[in-house]
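Q&A FORM
Asked by: J.P.
Topic: structure of Transcription antitermination protein NusB

PROVIDED:
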Amino acid sequence: MKSRTKARSVALQVLYEIDLTGHPIGTVFQTRLDTEPLDKSTADFSWQIIAGVVPLMAKLDAFIAQHAPEWPMDQVAIIDRNILRIAVWEFAVSETTPVKVAINEAIELAKLFGSDSTPRFVNGVLGSLANRQAEIKKALGLTTL
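REPLIED BY: S.T.
REPLY: Here is the structure written out as tokens.
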């Protein structure tokens, strides 16, 4: 597994636990690193995702829900919800990952961790969000340059 893919995988696992249990992010991340050691750059990227997504969870969910109206966010599987959050954060908030790469990585995570229908669901939702970075930033209350 490539290092950035591994970082996303660890971030997803941490976000899943936080979403499910409400445990403190630092504790969950450190426990994950103790279980699955990462090199510094991979751990740093994983932390960037986690620290970027957590404070925006509710806002990300509200925006994602607008583009998946047949699936209320409280009914979307926790793993699916976090895959979507990571991808949207990567291409619209951090803007460090090209949209197509973020979508492809999200689909790979969906194949690894989701149900049989997760990759198609993730692809559909992210496909509808692909060209809306400025709109997403505005909806999240972030400024665009």
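FOLLOW-UP: The radius of gyration is 14 Å.
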